[in-house]
Amino acid sequence: MKNWKLLTVVMAMLLLVLTACGSKEEEVSEETNNAAETETETATEEASAFPLTIKSTVEGYEDVTFDKAPEKIVVFDYGFLDTLDALGVDVMAVAKGNFPEHLAKYADDKYLNAGGLKEPLLEDIAAMEPDAIFISGRQGDFYEQLSEIAPTVFVGTDSSNYYDSFKASVNIAGQLFDKQEEADAKLAEIDKALEEVKAIAADSGKALVTLYNETLSAYGPGDGSRYGHVHSVYGFTPADESLENSTHGAKLSYEQVLEINPDVLFVVDRVAATGGESNIKEAIENDIINKTTAAQNGKIIYLDGALWYLAGGGLQSELLKIQEIIEKLS
Questions:
Q1: Which end of the chain is more exposed for a tag (fewer CB within 10 A), N or C?
Q2: From the CB of residue 219, how many other CB atoms can be counted at a distance below 10 Å?
Q3: Are residues 77 and 165 located together in one domain of the fold?
Q4: What's 310's DSSP letter?
Q5: Residue 94's domain is classified under what CATH number?
Q6: pLDDT tens figures, 6-21
Q7: pLDDT of residue 13
């Protein structure tokens, strides 16, 4: 009888052990399955980004659908090149020109020559067999020909909607190259700098934005003005509301500058931007301009020509532009 009782206890304990082992195996199996399902879901989510349809930053250009992220990339717009550089995206070829300092590495022969900013080397580009070409206004006349070579996307800024079109360009890079998180972090940094420059602008009086190219051109504060964002985005009060809102600006004599009499005179050096030998300070700081409030208060602000004239609209360049103004007006 005692033996039967002992045997019953042993059998019960054995059954308990087997049941526990079975539960553990089921747990491990379930965890493994869940992990596999999570990996599958993640892979599916990543794959679901494509096909991806990209809209250009301005109207008038066709949407482009990519089945996968392009690898062989040709870039003409220096702002977009700047953004790709900031996000760590490699490019195959660029338009060769007078690069701003932070993009100087692209002058190296490591990066193929796609031509000048206004003169694409169409046959050379075709021979490269690119997966994508990114352009802006200076290449607009070649859009159809470039589109025949590879999917071509307009990524330049729109002077009528500067900051939003800049962010749209950044988001194109973020989505297409799976860099949206990094892009958002850098945009947040720019937004923070914007708050700082707006505070400076509020205490700076009236500002006039000009471009020096042996003569002066001035830019209005409204939609369509190349440098209207100095007023609409940075917050500087315009010294003259009636100035022309255009890409090229309106010619302005030194006497007219004195008549407008800005508290801050911004001068973009186009001569230096395009590789010429600039005499900008000698030309601007003459007897007439020196009578302005800006000159008398030391508020003639010379802006980096290559940065402002050629490379605006990039993650790095937009921050550098704001920081330049903050530094020179602080």
A1: N
A2: 30
A3: yes
A4: I
A5: 3.40.50.1980
A6: 445 445 554 454 455 4
A7: 52
Residue 158 lies in a domain: yes
Distance of CA 80 to the CA centre of its chain: 5
Residue 239 has phi, psi (to 5 degrees) of: -75, -25
Q: Are residues 234 and 167 in the same domain?
A: no
Question: Which residues span the domain enclosing 210?
Answer: 205-298
* Alpha helices (runs of H) in the chain, residue ranges in sequence order: 2-47, 78-87, 122-128, 143-149, 162-176, 180-202, 229-232, 254-260, 270-273, 280-284, 293-296, 305, 315-329
Q: Using N-to-C axis directions, what is the helix angle for 78-87 and 315-329, rounded to 10°?
A: 100
Q: Could you read off the pLDDT of 179-193 as tens digits, one per residue?
A: 999 999 999 999 999
Task: Please say whether the beta carbons of 92 and 178 come within 8 A.
Answer: no
CA dist 250 and 219 (Å) reads 7
Give the span between the Cα atoms of 290 and 148, in whole angstroms: 53
Structural domains of the chain, count: 2
Residue 103 CA, chain-centre distance (Å), reads 13
Q: 144 with 255, same domain?
A: no
For residue 41, the number of C-alpha atoms closer than 13 Å in the C-beta half-sphere is 6
User: What is the tens place of the pLDDT at every residue in 146-180?
Assistant: 999 999 999 999 999 999 999 999 999 999 999 99
Residue type, 246: S
The rounded distance, in Å, linking the Cα atoms of 44 and 31 is 20
pLDDT the model gives residue 78: 97
**168 within some domain:** yes
Closest CA to 84 of 305, 317, 322, 303: 317
CB atoms within 10 A of CB 155: 29
CA atoms within 13 A on the CB side of 112: 20
pLDDT of 140 reads: 92
